Every structure is written in C-alpha cells, then in structure tokens.
Amino acid sequence: MKIMNCPLNGPRNISEFVYGGEVKPMPDMVNCSDKEWAEYVFYYDNTIRIVQEWWFHSPSGYWFIAERHTASDEILKTYDPSEIFKERIDFEVKAKPAQEVVS
Amino acid sequence: MRGYNRLPNSAGLFINPAKPVNFTFEGKNYQGVEGDTIASALIANDQWLMSRSFKYHRPRGPLTMAGQDANTLVQLENEPNVLADRSSIVDDMNVMGQNYNGSLEHDKDDKLGYAGRFMPVGFYYRAFYKPKGVWDKWEPFIRKKAGLGYADLSFTPTYHDKAYLFCDLAVIGAGPAGLAAALKAADAGANVLLIDENPIIGGALTYHRFDIAGKKAQSLREELTEKVLNHINIQTLTSATCNAWFADNYLPVIQGNRMYKVRAKQCVIASGAFEQHVVFRNNDVPGVVMSSAAMRLMSQYAVKPGNKAVVLTGNDDGYYCALELAKNGVEVALILDMRKEGASPELKSAVASIGLQVRLNSTVYEALPSSDKKHLSGVMVHDINGKGSVSKKGVKVDCDLLCMSSGYMPVYQLLCQAGAKLSYNDDSALFSLTNLPDNCQIAGSVNGVHDLDAVVRDGELAAHYSLLSLGLETIEPQPICCKVKTNFEWPIFKHPKGKDFVDFDEDLQAKDIVNATRLGYRDIQLVKRFSTVGMGPSQGRHSALPTARLVADATNRTVTETGVTTARPPFVPEKLANIAGRIFNPHKYTPMHKRHLELGAHMIPAGVWRRPAYYGSPAERDDVIQRESVMVRNAVGMIDVSTLGGLEVRGPDAAEFVNRIYTFAFLKQPVGKTRYAVLTNEQGVVIDDGVACRIEDDHYYITATTSGVDAVYREMTKWNAQWRLDVDIANVTSAFSAVNVAGPLSRKVLEKVCSDVDLSNEAFPYLGYREGTIQGVPVRLLRVGFVGELGYEIHMPSLFGETLWDLLMEAGKEFDMKPFGVETQRLLRLEKGHIIVSQDTDGMSHPGELSLDWAISRKKPFFIGNRSVDIVMAREQTRKLVGFKLDAKSSRPKEGHIVLASNSQLDCAITGNVTSSEFSTTINANIGMAFVGINQQEVGSKFPIRVDNGELVMAEVVPLPFYDVDNARQEVL
Amino acid sequence: MNFYNLSSAVELRRSQLVVGSPELINSNISMHDHTLFSRVGFRGRGVESFLREQGLNVPAVPNQSVVTAAGVLVLRLSHTEFWVIDTDKSQHEFIEALELASKGVANVYRLYCQHSHGCFLVRGENTSNMFAKVCGVDLSEKAFECASIAQTSVARVNAIIAKQVISGEEGYLVLSDIAGTQHLWDAIADASAEFN
What is the model's pTM? Predict the structure, then answer.
C-alpha cells in the first residue's frame, strides 16, 4: 500500500486518505460560456505531468494539497491549502444572462 | 537413523534423527524423523514416485527439493495440492498422491502419453469448441482429468490473522548475501527484519558446496548465523515467505496462520536464484534432479539421493556437487560437462584426484527409465555438435541419479513487481535486473553474483546503499564485480521423439513452444496464453528461461527482446484464509440499540449503522408496518433517528457559508427557524438534503442524510479551504442522538417531560427550532414534518440517548405510544411525497426533475451547483419524478422496476424506473414514486411498469402528496 | 437561545459499551472504559490563548499532549484544535467550568467530544505489539514516544491514540466515534487475546 505524507500527521497508509479531485481554478461563473463551464466541471487533461490534487486525511478531517506525477505516481510534495488559497473569496451578485433564465 | 537411505556421516541440518515420526503415503506406513519433509522422508525410504504429471500422467518425483516445482503436489486429509518437499511430516499424517486414475503406482491414465501427438499445444482451445455447444459435454470429463486434489468441504475453520511489522530495513532471503546485508545494516544502527522461507537461516550455505575442501559454507554459515541471531537490532522470521512487493515497500509476509504486513523504509532483496534444468528426452523421470536438490537431500536431510550418479553440468557447480556426492558415498559414474573447456584447473584436478571421470562437450540426450518407468536406470550420452545438436551415436551409462546444473535464473519476481527491468546478457547467458526504485536494493545471486566472497560483499554493498538512504551512512561505497560464469548458453537438446520437457507442470515439450511461435504467437505473453507455459504451480521458475531462449531463437530476436512473462503476486500460492483472516467490518450502534433489541426490533443495515426496520418478526413484516403507520397517523409513535447526519456551522460568516453551500436562501433565515436545505454538486445533481436550524445569527445546526453526511462534511471543509470564510465547520453526527416523536398526540407526550419550552402551536409553530431541557438534559427540538403529522425531532447529546428514550417511552405509555421502524417511516414519508435523496434520486437527478425548483434561490450570487443547474434546467427535459397509484389488488411494483414508453409495443424505450413503492393502508392503494418520461407526467394519465415475471401494470400519475394535501396535520395542529 | 451546557446532568450519562468481564483482558494488556469521564474540545484561532488564560499548559505542536498534575490531559490535534480530558474522574467541575468559560469567547468554538467519542485506556507490556494487529502506524517504544498522538485508522475506524502517563503509568488513550466504540473495543480485545 502506498504511503502519503500528510502535512499535519506525517506518513500514513493511502487508505487513510480520500481523494478530492484536481485543484483547478473555477472560471467566472457569471460570464463564462456554457462550454467553458462544462470544461471546468467535466473534463480533465489526463496527461503525463505533475498534478495538484486535493487529499483529505479522514481520521483528522484535514484537507491538503499533494503534487503527484501521473506517470510514476510519485508524490513529490504535500502542503496546506493556505499556500495556494491565501485570501477570502467572494462572489459578486450576478446579472443573469437572459437566455439562461428558466421559463 | 530412520529410512535406509540415510547418510551415516551427515547430521542433516533440518532434522532431528532422535525423534521418529510415523506417517502413511498412499496407505502404506513410513517412518521419517522430526524435521523431515514428506519428500525427504519418502526418498529416505526409496519412494521417489510422488505424483503424476498434469497432462500425460507421467510418473514424477522431486526435482528441486525446495518447493519450486509441481512434481511433489500431494493430498493431505484436509488440504489438497500440498508441496511434499516443503511440508513437514507429523505423526499419523495420511498423505495421498493426486491426479491419477486408480492408484499412484498404477495410473490407468498413464497411456495418455502415447496419445500426446494427438494432443498438440492449444489442443483444448481448438478441439472442443466445434460444433457449437459441444464444450458443455466435454467440460465435465476434461475437468475431472485435469483436476488436481480435492477440497474438504466439511473443514473446520481455523484462526488466521494479520499484523503490521515495522522496520528500517527488510532483508528478503537469509542466504549469505542477506545475512551480510542484515549484519552490516544492524551494526550501523538500523532496525532490521530478516525474512526466509526455510526453517533455518543460511540459504545456499545450508546445502551448497563453495570450495574444494568443503569447509567454507559451514564455517561461514555458523559465523553469520551466530552473529545474526544474537544481534539486538535484527528480528528474524523463518519459515516465512514474502509473497509480493507493493509500493513503498509494503511486503506481505506469510508465516503460518499470520500474514505480516511489513512496512519497511528500505528493502534488500536477496532472494537467490533458481537452478535451471537441461532440456532432453525424458528429463522428467524420477531420479533426474537439480544438483542443488541432491545437495539439499544430503546436507539438510542426511538422505542419500542415489547409489550411482551422473552429473550433467554447464558450470563449476556441477563439479562441487560431484565432490559432495562422492564424499557421501554415492558412486559418481561420470561428470558430463556441456562446456568445451570444462572447469577451472583446480576443480579438474580435485575431481581427478578422487578418480572421477569428466567428459567435456557432452550431454545427456535421453534419460532411460527403468522397466516399470518409475525411476531412472541410465542415460544416453552424446557429444555436442553445435547449438542444441548432438552426435548421432551415443553411449549408455547406467545410473539411478542424474544431477543437472545448466545455470541459474534470478528469483526476479519481487524485483519485477518493484519495477525492475530484466535484460539478458548473451555473454553470461543470464538475465539481470536493473532500474530498481530508490528504496529497494538487490544482492547476491539474484544480482548475478555467485562467487561466495563477492556474494557477501554484495550483501554489504546493498546494505550500504540502504544505510545511505536511511541517513545512517554518508560515504559512497565501491561497487563490486564478479566474473564467475554460471549459465550454459543453450542447454536445450530437442529429441525427435519428444518428451523433452520445458515446463514440467504443464507437460510442455520443446516443440510445443516452437509450434506456438509457428502458429503466429510471437509475443511471449501470447505464447504463454496459447501453450499454457508458465501457468502451472511453479509459475515459470524453470520454464521461463528455456521458453525465452526458444522463442527468441524461433523468431530471430534476442532473448532480451523476447523477455519473460509478467510475474504478478503472489510469489507462492496464498490461502484464502490468509487474506480473509481477521478482517474488520465496522458497524455503528445508536445509544438506543439495546432497547431496540429488547423491543423485538428487526434490525437491518443502513450503511455502517444497524437500524430497526420495524418492531416484529420478518414473517409479519407487512402487517407490522401497516400497524405502526396507523399508530402514527392516529395517535403517536417514536422512531430513533440518531443516524441522521449532523453538522454545525459557527462564526461570523456562518450564514454566508450556508448560503453558498445549499440551494435555498439562508441569509435572512430567522433565528429559531428551520429551513429545508438541498445540496447540489458542481454538476447540478442533487446529492443530499436536510434541515438547517438557525440557532443564533452566527450558528447553524444542519442535518444531513445518514449515508451522505461524511461526504457533505468533506465538501464543506474543502470549499472553505478555498473560500477562507470565518467559520468553523464540525461534523457532530455522533455527538447527538435523536428521536422523532410523531403523531397527533406527540405534543402531549412531549409536554409531560419538557416543561421549559412552550410547545403550543403559536409559541412553537411548524418549522420552529427550540432548545430546552428534559430532566436537566439539554435538548434541541425541531418541529418538522417528515412523516406528515405533528411531530418533534428531539436531538440530545449521545450519552443521554438511552436515558431520554426511556423517559419518552414512559411518558408515551398513557397514549399507547410505541416505537416504529425505518421501513414504516419510509412508507409514511412516501404518503407525504417526501423524497429520500439517493433512493428517489440517482447520479443524474437535477432539482427540476425532482420538482425542487421551490427550494432554489435564484437571487443569490452563488451556490455550488448554481451554473450547472441553470444549464441543465434550461435544456429540454427528459424525465420527471412523479407519484403513482395502483389498485390495492394489483401486483405491487418494486424499487428498480422499469417504466416503459408504451404498453403496446414490446420493444419500446425504457423511460424511467420505480424509486419507491409500498402498500398504504391510509390510502388503501399501492403507491409509489417513479421517474417517467417527460410526456408521461400528466396527472390522471397512466404509464406502464414492467413488474416481476414480465407482467405490465398500468400506474396512474397522481399529485403529491398522497396524504393530507393541505399539510393541515403537520402545520396547523 | 441559551448556552447549551453539554457538561450538565453527569449522572444521566450512559456508556453503551458492553465491555465483557473481566474488564482486565489478561495480565499483559488491560482495557478500561473512560467514556463517561468528562472532556471538552475547542477549535479556533483563539483557543490556545484561551486555554492558557484558564491556567492550562498546552503542547507547542500538533499531535502532542500534556497532562497536569491533577490528571487533566490536553491533546493538541491541530494548530487550532484542543481536547481537554479528565483522566481519573475527578476533574468534572474543572471541565464544566472550562466549557462555560468558553461561552462568547471570540474564535473559540466548543466541540462535543464528550458525546461524539467513546474513550478507553489500553495499557500493558505488549500493547504496541497488539496495536500492530489493528493499526498501520508504528506505536512501538522507538517510534512513538510518550506524549505523542496518532490520528489514524484502527480496525478500520478512525481513532485518536494518545500515549501519555495516566495515573502514574504509561498507557494509550483511544478515542473514537462513540457509535463505533463497541466494534473497536471488541477488535482490540480480540487482538489482545494472544498476549496472555
């Protein structure tokens, strides 16, 4: 079984963790096209590279980010999400595009 | 000494000659000694025949004496397919042969060998599939012929378990390399775990001869063993097999009934090498063995392997074997050296000095069985003319033992699992392993190092690399090199009459492999699947190398290009008991669990929880559920809802956070009120629902579904790791247990125990939230209507759960209040048309399909599924969740039954499925919910459901809820 | 709304654990149910200073614990999460006072570990070997020093294991979801059986 290094708890069996998907920026929800939104929600590159992923250490309820190589499956580093998400995020009140109003 | 083939001058490292052991084989009595394997004890009694071969039922005896071949598979009373050369004898053990028709000695199926030419490779694939259907007739016959042992189905289960073992360095294989590695690492302060499959450590030092004088192995073994066993930093596991290599040095090691899950920071694999056979006609006759097998018999078991021996070799090790045989009183008729140049001058003179004859550039072309075919009686010796070809004329040499030594194949299995690449060196005729991960080292003969001093240095070198990684060593080591050549390039001498076996397990001859390539199977993996080479119990330990050579030769490629087949775990067969033993099935109980059992509840699993389905016997299920539901509708009942998920959101941004997570508007939710909360994911699919209670401006208590709460909590915390709102999110599911007291009389029950909350409709209206105490216990009260009656959910800290249950049951006595189960609750909520997320929804259900548009705020800037919900709901809709009704006498649909587009066309489209269905006494009809096609949703119209046995029933679409359309019962009372 | 005092009605608390008899598994490993002993948890940026103001010493880093002379154990589970545990059933008033004192303190959020978690004490000579049968973290003397905490999976359920000197003797305090405590207790009792 693989071992992952949790930034809070140290190296642990991978079975203690829950995968949370890739870290990817959300497009501007109000102004992006349906296609852009679908790309964000449904599509993943699945190429050979280093990906940033969300991982959750279940026994301590802790989310962190891991950088993993998709070919070697090597986990290169793990760190607290605050290293990427440094500031509060707010959403503006949207002006709804007319064509998307449900009749 | 027990058994007349025992050596007088050898102690036998594995045995205790003082303790006789009696056992039977094929019904005949035998005596061996403690420490004997079945095979060594039988050979000590001159019983070489132990099995019949898989396909041709040829007589077979031990080949390796190390559990590496399938020739010694025998049947014990309670276990089939036991390796006789690994399994120790115990008193009164009854051992039988297997895979024969009649008896082992007189197998009626041994004539199959003569039919061999009518059963070419791939025979089964090609012969029994035409005409269509004929396989069904052949199959029972073939299975009977092909079967090995029989399983005892009346077995008594035994206790097997698993345990972790932690170490800095795991050393696999306690031969000279492994011992040296373990000592070096342990001396440097590492915590070492040493693993070996044999009963004592030493590996090749326990049987092999490394020098002319025959002293070196013993003295080195004694020296290293003493140091290792007394070293405080070394833990030794013997009779233990490391069965795989998994990522990050996760090593399953089986020892007896326990499977150790070894977690090693570093790993040295010193797994050794498998000695390889020579391919010639009748190379499977009992009495034809590996050189190492003969030496194991003599050194480990003090068994004399024969009276007159021929040694066939392609390296110097055969000469050492001859010296060892001679020392133990076996007449060595001839040393046949396949090489032109022969052994080193020292060895040549050593064998000459004791009068042994050596014949160079020669091989055995055919082994000659005795008249009863059960043992070797002589060999035909021919000169080698070129690669695989021999002189026409040969000479016959009488012998009852032939020791083969054509070279070695590294025990590469674990290393390949670790990612090592195998490549073949034409000069050394040897596979070598490279490209290992950083946490895994290789040492000893598996690394192509065979000179004993070099093996020890190689072990130390591997340990050195491990110590560097562990930070216990800083200086880079010097690599070593070893030039001893062990492998003869082409020890394959095809015979026109065949029976020149490449794979003993599967009775595959040299031509079978070549023919497979001629049929177009060039890839080694395809050759394996077509011919079955390497698929037997020994998993290519001996067949992989000759097969690679034959396929390379037949397809004009290099052996490296050809390669060997993938070696997946397990390394040796693993009992299911080892895997299944002591597994954990966590389950959760609510604080009222004991009370439910006392009240005769029928408990069912709900995820990891155990919940009462209803209170009564399963035989009366329908009646009990209807009775419980009538009780709730007419009086009062109580249900344990402790399994409900619970989440708390606190802090200045609590309302903002809840507003972003759930679809409804929460910013203006008044304190003391609850609000229905629907959660969609980013795809716009409904994934959970619950009730959000606003306790304070900055404090929410939110319920979630039993099975969904953990995922909801993860979602919440993950989003806030990005948003960084000033809130605390806590999963309080287990902190609170809860009951729902429901029914027109529920207020009266609650009034009896809770005096500090005004329970009147005016003071505590529908959807209200209050806090109070019951006998000093703090409780949270939610006036909700899941079952459609006046009702209160009472949430209390879990340690009080049982106490409060008792108090409420007591208070309800005068109203005839009884508990009701989760199946009754499902019926009641169905009557009210309330959905259960994940029962009435699936992975595609968006809020529109579920008529939950009302629970979505269109005014707020964001909620998780916002944009996707907009997109999917603006599209043309395809289905809708509706309520349906069927006559009470009609067949009742079940959950999952399909909804069809039309009842007139047999092959029409499926438009949906039933999600909930039950008979309702209150409505006096079969009622349910179902997804139907978008044009089938009109109230009053009918749609077809295909129920059991293909019957079509027509269900009528009815408006939801079925019961109390004005919600008067839950809201106004 | 009134502050909801979880530390009230001590006498009405009930542990659902069926511990079997005797509670002492054997001479080498003993197990004691501490579920009814008082405890309270806090999370938030203000907790560390709040606890110090209440006179408690707190560990400097996560996954460490300290114990007071009176037997109050302070677990630090993350940078901002702390649990305060009575280890010998004598500190209920202190815990209750602590809970009440947290009311209204900014950035201090009370956690309900009194009710969400079952708690038991396991100790004895072979305890770390026993844990190796149910837990993937090395809890041996060398790898897991006194005052260490492991938040991990034990017998496939999430648990907090805290090694500390409790009532003068080293032991492992195991805290786990109260609804799954019976499963965990039974699994540990079964794993202990061989060390008789």
Answer: 0.92
